[in-house]
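Milestone 3.1: sequence recovery, worked example.
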């Protein structure tokens, strides 16, 4: 089975051309491939599959622990580039079918080479029951959460997958490695949750560290960066255009108004190709 490794701001996935190769047990394969000591090493596995509706390609995404997620903004950008460079889609606008709905990716080139992508990520989901998170009211903004003996405050948003945003004085110093898994599996999140520690630099700039459900600490999270932008607007901490500094690079997010879709722009890098024994 042939695969290609790509990353978006350090959020790395292994891509398989499902138009040609059949993957019978993707959850199991994701675990083996993603292992950074005994496998290839990645945050997960993404399959490029024939579309079922009017998209160019269909996306299935599996985390490093084998669990399947609805979508991933960084993975989505890279999937679009993978589809175009492998002849699965034509042009530099790619419609991708995901479990969270159709997403359109615009690929950006430098000297003819794909280097970045811009994704319309859909409208944020703000109703607690739809995120889902157990919280009172019509929005989960600055709501308390007690975990690990700490009294925390979070704002929750879904971009097709659930996110909990915590504003902290120092993202680097916040104990993400210990609190992340406890929050991910907290009973208030029936589908688990992605966790983000956010340090506000200015109304247009943040530093973000992420614990992704099913993968642990990652260098970037595209839907998470979008959730951080939305949470900043809802809580009055940041504006509708945001530069998010993540450990793997920078992501640009824009949420023009409450009726608009969130747009994410960031890098696309192909690392290498390989062959995994059957």
């Amino acid at each position: 089975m042939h695969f290609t490794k790509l990353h978006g701001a350090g959020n790395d996935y292994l891509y398989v051309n499902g138009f040609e190769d059949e993957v019978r047990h993707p959850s199991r394969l994701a675990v083996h491939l993603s292992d950074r000591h005994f496998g290839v090493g990645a945050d997960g596995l993404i399959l490029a599959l024939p579309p079922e509706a009017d998209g160019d390609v269909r996306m299935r995404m599996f985390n490093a622990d084998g669990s399947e997620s609805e979508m991933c903004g960084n993975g989505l950008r890279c999937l679009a580039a993978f589809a175009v460079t492998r002849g699965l889609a034509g042009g530099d606008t790619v419609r991708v079918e995901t479990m969270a709905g159709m997403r359109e990716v615009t690929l950006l080139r430098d000297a003819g080479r794909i280097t970045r992508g811009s994704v319309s990520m859909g409208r944020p989901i703000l109703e607690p029951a739809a995120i889902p998170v157990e919280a009172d009211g019509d929005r989960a903004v600055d709501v308390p959460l007690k975990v690990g003996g700490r009294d925390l405050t979070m704002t929750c948003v879904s971009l097709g997958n659930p996110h909990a945003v915590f504003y902290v004085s120092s993202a680097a110093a916040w104990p993400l490695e210990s609190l992340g898994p406890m929050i991910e599996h907290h009973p208030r999140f029936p589908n688990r949750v992605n966790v983000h520690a956010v340090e506000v630099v200015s109304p247009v700039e943040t530093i973000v560290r992420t614990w992704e459900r099913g993968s642990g600490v990652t260098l970037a999270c595209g839907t998470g960066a979008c959730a951080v932008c939305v949470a900043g607007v809802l809580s009055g901490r940041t504006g509708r255009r945001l530069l998010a500094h993540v450990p793997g690079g920078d992501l640009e997010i824009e949420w023009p108004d409450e009726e608009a879709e969130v747009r994410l722009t960031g890098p696309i890098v192909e690392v290498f190709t390989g062959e995994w024994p059957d």
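The radius of gyration is 18 Å. Residues 222-235 form the longest helix (14 residues).
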